[in-house]
Amino acid sequence: MSTIINKVTKFILGIVISLVSFTANAQKTLLDQYIAEAFQNNQGLHSQEFQLEKSLYALKEAQSMFLPNVSFLGSYTKTGGGRTIDFPIGDLLNPIYNSLNQLQGGENFPKVQNASFLLNPDNFYDAKFRTTLPLINAELWYNQQMKKEMIGQQQAAVNVYKRELVKNIKTAYFQYYQAVKAVDIYNNALQLVNENIRVNESMLRNGVRNSTALTRAETEKQKIDASINQAENAQKNAQAYFNFLLNRSLTTEISLDSAAFSAGDKIIDNASGDISSREELTQLNKTAAVYQLNKKIQQSYIVPKLNTFLDLGSQGYDWKYNNKTQYYMWGVNLQWDLFAAGRNHYKTQQATQDVKAVKAQYSETEQALKLQLEQVINNFNTATANFQAAQTQLQLAQKYYTDQLKMYKAGQLLYLELIDAQNQLTNAQLQRAVAFANVQIAQAGIERTIASYPLQNN
What we know:
alpha+beta; 2 domains; Outer membrane efflux proteins (OEP); 6 strands; two-stranded antiparallel sheet
């Protein structure tokens, strides 16, 4: 019985996990997919990512400086003339050889000429493999740490660009929505005008109205046609800009997803915002760490540098190579800078000023971000209030137009008053679309300011 229960439990748990996974995937709206596409294709972002890769290679370069370095060195010397060393070997040995020859009565000991040796070697070569290895070098260690901090700095720069890109994409998306709605609203207004033209033509044929109302209706149609052309042009421009951000054809169709929009009925208190996760602050922190390490590099002159080397090679005359020309040389090098006329001190002071400057910049940026947060929250609250007012105005304008249309058809209203009611309805619809888009844009501004969009999921 317990086995059956366990199987049933596992089955139910599997279904729950699948549903959760499906829900999580469904929560990714079409707009999020567009953002992911931009992360894949945007050229400006690629440029920032190339800089990040460059920083990674710079770290590998710094790490490689702790490993042995092997070089092949070679030289060949051909000389003639120059200084010599004279060795009077003949003057020293010939008197002795003469005495020996006299004693022996022969010429067993020939005369020896004085020798002269060139100081510059002639037809001489020296070829060797030199291996060097740093044993103590504080400058290399601090340089490696600095490269690590620079990676974090560039990663923050990439994230800053991504967040700005997200904001621009969302803004362009909502502006495209606004342009599409404007085209739809003007087309609806055109339908109303066409209906008015039809009604006025009918009344004119029946002798109920004169041609003045029909002429005014046709004039109003021309105005709406012009507005439609202007709205369609704005829609094309918004479409082109959105596609530009995604690095695709400027005329690619854009799908609007209602899941990406919010009703905009929430008022946000500025006390609920937080800027601590802004990558701009992280970037400045990393910059301060880089400057601090640079300061330590300038101070590292007080630590002596110790290197070791090993030479394996051959040197000789006339390109001869044998066991007599082969050699090795091993040793250590010590460098300890004791006096440099204050240059190291001045470099340290320059690095100190860099640290102070970036700390001051951090404080200024932090205050600017707080100000930006307060402003975007105020903008959102204003946009929300305007949207709610626009909704009310639209409802009133709709009712007003319906009432006026009934009165006009009953012959109790001038056509100019009906046109006024229709224009009020059209303007109310446009204002509602603009207000709704402004709420979405304001929300995108808040999301950008508090850095809340999940970059790791894209």
